[in-house]
Amino acid sequence: MSRIAAKFAALKAEGRGALVTYLQGFDPDRETSLALLRGLPEAGADLLEVGVPFTDPMADGPSIQRAAQRALKVGATLPGVLELVRAFRAGDGTTPVILMGYYNPILAYGVDRFCTDAAAAGVDGLIVVDVPPEEAGEIEPQARAAGLDLIRLVAPTTDDARLPRVLAATSGFVYYVSITGITGTRSATAASLEEAVPRIRKHTDLPIAIGFGIRTPQQAGEAARLADGAVVGTALVDTLAASLDEEGRARPETVGLVLEQVRALAGAVRGR
Amino acid sequence: MNKPLPNSYRQGPDSQGRFGQFGGRFVAETLMPLILEVEQAYEAAKRDPSFDAEWRRLLTHYVGRPSPLWFAERLTAHLRANSAREDLGAKVYFKRDELNHTGAHKINAVLGQILLAKRMGKTRIIAETGAGQHGVATATVCALFDLPCTVFMGATDVERQQPNVFRMKLLGAEVMPVTSGAATLKDAMNEALRYWVANVEDTYYCIGTVAGPHPYPVMVRDFQSVIGEEAKQQMMAAEGRLPDSLVAAIGGGSNAMGLFYPFLDDADVRMYGVEAAGHGVETEQHAASLTKGRPGVLHGNRTYLLQDAHGQITEAHSISAGLDYPGVGPEHSWLHELGRVQYVSATDDEALAAFQLCSKLEGIIPALEPAHALAHVIRMAPQLPRDEIVLMNLCGRGDKDIFTVAKHLGVEM
Fold first, then answer.
1. pLDDT (tens digit, 9 = 90+) per residue, A181-212?
2. Which CATH class is domain A3-269?
3. Which of A55, A193, A199, B196 could form a disulfide with B313 if both were Cys (CB 3.0 to 4.6 A apart)?
4. B241 C-beta neighbours (distance < 10 Å), count
5. Does B33 contact chain A (CB < 8 Å)?
């Protein structure tokens, strides 16, 4: 069983949903990024999404755009992010790691070699934002051969006619983008989520995680109860960004501040 | 899927929006249903004679089409005088799309797209713009159709293209300066896509070139093909035969695609796309995606891109804001790999020289974009036999560029 499947199964047995965190790799530098990844599971993150920096993140809001610019400024690359995951994996054999990013850096790396190397580094799943099911042939066979889950986004605009096609192309879990918009710009209402989650459930047995616009412990708790997981990204990136010095460098308290916020989110997801 | 199409260069794209390996639909799921809706609406509109009739009525009475075909007699004589032998120096013609309302070819495709948006029931229009020509064309048509219009423009470009910013505002459009990334055309396109994702219900994104996710490259090409179709007829009337060479500037490549497409299967017609070489293709400061880039995925399509070894997109540079883009339309990438079109380049300095020569010899101040095409004509025509014909797309007028050119020539205005 993959780490992702094992994690969701264990949480189901525990009777709660997952807290999925998103941070951009190398934001604001490699060492801080690694310290954050190492601290996240203990702070209560169940699955880790690691953003791969890209110059043109067209589905991301200003916070994550700036995170990418900070990371690129310190020399982040896709090989560098894989090395970061390898370093994390050396000390943690169970927490699932999902790389989230855009297709061009993967193309530049070489799709075949990337999938092999990512799996070897300890990556469990991929979210490639700009490869929709229509273009699945680009990366699906290679990801499957390497044992990587290909997690797809389902959006409010994904209608019932299209939903089965998107879900058929998904493995690991379903990432429900709860708003029509870019990351971190607004939040879905509980009512719209209560309608959306059963709509997806009708078509799949995969776990469903809700993301884009979840900021507070209360929202995370609600989403994790309604679905199988809550993804929090921008709110953590904002905390990280606010902790940096004038030159955008980490301060001694940066890691602690982000992990403290993760603890609060994890508490809400655990119903505490 | 990747093999060349037999017998014709005019069959692309396939049902997946691919020209060979190029093109496609690389967008986030939130946009995907909308892209499919645009495709369906466009397919339906193409089959509706009333759609075509309305578009052509507007082209005739609002834009002023057909644009003239002009024999550039003084330029031809000048280039002949510069040729090495008496039997050299091809005859140069201009397709004068700079005479269109709003001063460039952009309005051809904008009219088509806004008519489509109306058919789709969309009530807001957004667009990206670099130099401001596509923004002005979109703002113009939105004024005509009483549609609210938001134009995304890099903050750097807002600064260097103030006259066009003011024009757009006069026309009632809202201009949104984009500060993300390098604050130029590529970032304006990112921001327009982001805005669209958040406003999919009522908004239509009017893309300015033959790039973006399918169906935009084919749709914009189809609308712009009016240029080549007219030119073909006009050339037959003027010379009784087709031209030997076509020349057009390439940023995203919409004016070139519009001129080339109707001629692609005329095997004897050679074609040259002229990219912006900026300070020179051997420097870091250029916008020559086909000459110096390699295939990648950006803004919804696979195409040649300027990028580093790790797939990060690098900044383009050109004196012409309209060519200042690190990608190119996917059909050009395909034609490049097939060798059907030759892609060459011209530097800032060559374009500046052509800009001035055209003004003095023909009494036509060209935009800096076609000045790149003209720079190649100036290199090429003196080498060609005297009985050959070169047709260049003069796709925009230079009013917008006089401040930039003055600055480069050291003239205080």
1. 888 878 888 888 888 999 999 999 999 999 98
2. alpha beta
3. A55
4. 10
5. yes
